[in-house]
Design goal:
Layout (H helix, E strand, L loop, with lengths): L15 E5 L3 H7 L4 H21 L4 E8 L7 H24 L2 E6 L7 H13 L5 E9 L1 H17 L10 H5 L12 E4 L18 E4 L9 H12 L9 H15 L1
Helix pairs in contact: 1-2, 2-3, 3-4
């Protein structure tokens, strides 16, 4: 039997969860449905996972909704996905406000329709005061994120605001999409796939990865619980040896007494 209760005082509390929501099309095909029905079922799953995150005091949830590479899919599917995205924003924003959730969309908006861009801006403004952060990555890519951050630093150099020799990791990180959020602690990918697919490449440097075999529409609160349990069973070393981590924990406990 799987132990599902996380430790009461974890060394590295789960603050930020990112999810690559994979398998919607395969879920639909397995049931003899159109691919869009899988995406529609996947949208309904978001609320369940938000509730599960809240139960575990997770501060931020970031979902990979639409990658830059997804534009290569059939035009009908892309159009359906954008329509579903707009529908989600319209239907859920009042619930997000009521549940104290701040929604933000990251990624390029150049290829989104003016109407969708306006809707995103409206929902972001209406939910800005929320304590929990829900981030949807739409037309996003990790490489794009890093390039945009580099461009921002280059512009500061051109304006004479900073010296190239002074640029460091912290400065670049401040220009990334999730700069204001804690580091990603756990990245979950559904459908059994074991790759990062250009998602949060910088932010995932020390992220714990968890692969769920089920498709995203089947990833319920119980599946999320399994991922959380697996996370808390791991020893996060951040370059140290296991022995160093144990000693570090002992020192922390001693100093807090």
């Amino acid at each position: 039997m799987i132990e599902t209760n996380p430790p009461e005082t974890p060394d590295h509390p789960l603050r930020h969860v990112a999810i690559i929501m994979d398998g919607n099309n395969r879920w639909a095909k397995k049931r003899g449905l159109l691919g869009l029905e899988g995406h529609r079922a996947g949208v309904k799953r978001v609320r369940d996972i938000l509730d599960a995150c809240r139960e575990h005091q997770v501060e931020a949830l970031t979902l990979f909704a639409f990658s830059k590479e997804n534009w290569q899919r059939p035009a009908e599917e892309v159009g359906g996905l954008m329509s579903l995205f707009a529908t989600y924003l319209k239907r859920e924003f009042k619930e997000l406000v009521a549940e104290d959730v701040c929604l933000r969309v990251i990624g390029s908006r150049d290829r989104l329709s003016p109407r969708l861009r306006k809707l995103i801006e409206q929902v972001e403004a209406d939910t800005a005061g929320g304590r929990m952060r829900l981030t949807l990555a739409v037309d996003y890519g990790g490489r794009w994120d890093i390039v945009e951050a580099a461009k921002a630093l280059a512009e500061q150099v051109r304006q004479g605001e900073i010296d190239p020799a002074d640029i460091n990791e912290a400065m670049l990180e401040k220009s990334l999409c999730l700069a204001e959020l804690p580091a990603v602690d756990l990245c979950i990918r559904t459908a059994g796939e074991q790759r990062i697919s250009n998602f949060l490449l910088w932010q995932a440097a020390y992220t714990e990865f968890y692969v769920a075999s089920c498709y995203w529409p089947d990833f319920d609160s119980a599946a999320f619980e399994c991922a959380v349990t697996a996370y808390y069973k791991r020893q996060r070393r951040f370059g140290l040896t296991g022995e160093q981590v144990v000693q570090q924990d002992k020192n922390t406990c001693s100093s807090s007494e």
